Amino acid sequence: MEIFYFLVFGGLTAVVALLEFTKTSRDLINTSSAFNALKNNYLVVYSLMMAGDWLQGPYVYYLYSQYGYGKGEIGQLFIAGFGSSMLFGTLVGSLADKRGRKRACITYCITYILSCVTKHSPLYKVLMLGRVLGGIATSLLFSAFESWLVAEHFKRGFDPQWLSVTFSKAIFLGNGLVAIISGLFGNLLVDTLALGPVAPFDAAACFLAIGMAIIMSTWGENYGDSSENKDLLAQFKGAAVAIASDEKIALLGAIQSLFEGSMYTFVFLWTPALSPNGEEIPHGFIFATFMLASMLGSSIASRLMARASLKVESYMQIVFIVSATSLLLPVITSLILVPTGVKGGSISFSGCIQLGGFCAFEACVGIFWPSIMKMRSQYIPEEARSTIMNFFRIPLNIFVCIVLYNVNAFPMIVMFGMCSIFLFVAFLLQRRLMIIAESQRSKSEDWIAMKEREVEAEPLTV
């Protein structure tokens, strides 16, 4: 493997280590032992859940191909997963708000374990069932756990600022370190131990079962709106009204869909972008490098969110601009640099430039996740948190299904250009969100100041 990849990986490792080991009291938030107990318990569970997810990711396509299915049939299986998340995600999210977030997290474990079990069958219908179950599980993963944490955090009376500590650590571990370890562990099972492509799914089921046992034994239950006279349709209407009546919630949903849509499109495009002529690239090592870049982003986010004077709405504008520029690099390099046209060989010069840009994008992803979680905790009403969060995923899943269905219809640079435009639009929406938030914050401060003056002006009575 070329030294270039080791230099990029080593450089990112050094920067992450430097950021983590040079944190001062200004970069840390003082918390209580009771909060730390909740945080550590959640981080263990979240890391196990993400290990169950990351172990499967690199081997889904490979397993289907080993069963003899072609690109078209595999594409249909992937579309089924995203379609299932879109159709059933809001339903299960509403059930989480009404029936309990702990139950929803346990349901995630059971559903995803069953999805892993279906991978043992080569039958197309069984695999399709597994994708449907996986889609439902994905919706729960990205809504129920966060909803449980936020509700439990406030129920125990902890400082809202402390949520950023849990969010940034969860992304640093779950979307960074755990992803890297899971990739290496999966490679050990499949290649080194030669246990076959189903082995990572069996390992994932084991981690999910361990996590479920911890949830069942240590977590308490919490709810959104548990009114007995409020059915699911009423919950949907309530969530829709909340989105329509509060511009901040609508903007947040649009920003999330635009960024995540670009992120999932990038997942499909980075391999052909770095090897347009069949260049030999170390896919697993590059994936680990991307996850390391994500860890770098989450480490930066923890420092940013530790400063009470620095608002999330403000610095996220810069994140979206950097993201848009990073995914525009393949378009720029294709216009400036003349392609060699030579088949095979090592990564090209333009590929090296793009890899650097992709690492910058992954660092932005690492900042995005804890930051969007923090904004959701501020703006989304508690009674319909899971429902609204899954509402946000509907346009995302529609977009990803369209991309999957038409992945060969558009040139790659058009797809990257589209993602860059989406991220620039996210920047504009983020700017609008900041203006609204600052305006409301200013009005609130003026109102408090007025009330204080009124109290001071009141005559004393004997």
UniProtKB/TrEMBL annotation:
Query: What are the alphabetically sorted keywords of the record?
Result: Membrane, Transmembrane, Transmembrane helix
Show the InterPro entries listed in the entry.
MFS_trans_sf (IPR036259), MOT2/MFSD5 (IPR008509)
GO terms of molecular function: molybdate ion transmembrane transporter activity
For this protein, the record's SUPFAM superfamilies field holds: MFS general substrate transporter (SSF103473)
Name the residues that span the membrane. Answer: 6-22, 43-62, 74-96, 128-150, 170-189, 201-220, 285-306, 318-341, 347-369, 390-407, 413-429
Q: Which GO terms describe its cellular component?
A: membrane
Superkingdom, taxonomy of origin: Eukaryota
> What is the protein name stated in its UniProt record?
Molybdate-anion transporter
Species this chain originates from = Erythroxylum novogranatense
